[in-house]
Amino acid sequence: MRQAYGEHTMNSEARILIGFDGTPTAEHAIREAARLLGARRALVVTVWEAGQAFSPLNLPISGLEGAPVTVDVRTGLEVDQAAYETARQLARAGARLAVEHGFDATGHAVADDVTVADTLVRLAAETGAAAVVVGAHRHGGLSKLLLGSTSSAVIERAGCPVVVIRGE
């Protein structure tokens, strides 16, 4: 079965890229995407920010004001490894949920050195994804204007169709 979407075509063999952050909105997006798109291959991606433990705001440091500051690199590495493991577990949980809803899915945790949206768009291009599925968190009024939106950025930058599923 083939359906045309602009320059792109979606067929039952094409892989769908699903952004998954473990929130109820992301879980709802998987369920709705399965209902809308039917059984197909999917790559469930959780993006994590590598090196966040070494950000100046998050560094585990010691020292008194005016004294030399020492950085606990071992603790930073442990925190970074824990973040990676959490992302892997989230990706696997998302893939399990996708399988429960009919997708032939695998999960993958990806380190983010740019924005989540840019990472998803890059992965979609690299894997030849037929579409990207993301959940949209609802923001009202002023916060919608001030907050960046991953789903809006993916829509703007992706070279394939984007399915945005609003939260329940």
Describe the protein's architecture and organization.
The chain is of the alpha/beta class and 168 residues long. The protein has one domain (2-49, 88-166): Rossmann fold (3-Layer(aba) Sandwich), CATH 3.40.50.620. Helices cover 40% and strands 26% of the residues. The chain is built from 5 helices and 9 strands; from the N terminus they run E-E-E-H-E-E-E-H-E-H-E-H-H-E. Strands 7-4-3-8-9 form a 5-stranded parallel sheet, with helices on both faces. A two-stranded antiparallel sheet has the order 1-2. Strand 1 and strand 2 (8-11) form a beta hairpin. Helix 3 (116-127) packs parallel to helix 5. The longest helix has 28 residues, at 73-100. This is UspA domain-containing protein. Belongs to the universal stress protein A family. It comes from Amycolatopsis albispora. Residues 15-166 form the UspA domain.
Question: Which features would summarize this protein structure in a list?
Answer:
Universal_stress_UspA; UspA domain-containing protein; 168 residues; 5 helices; Rossmann-like_a/b/a_fold; disordered N terminus; UspA
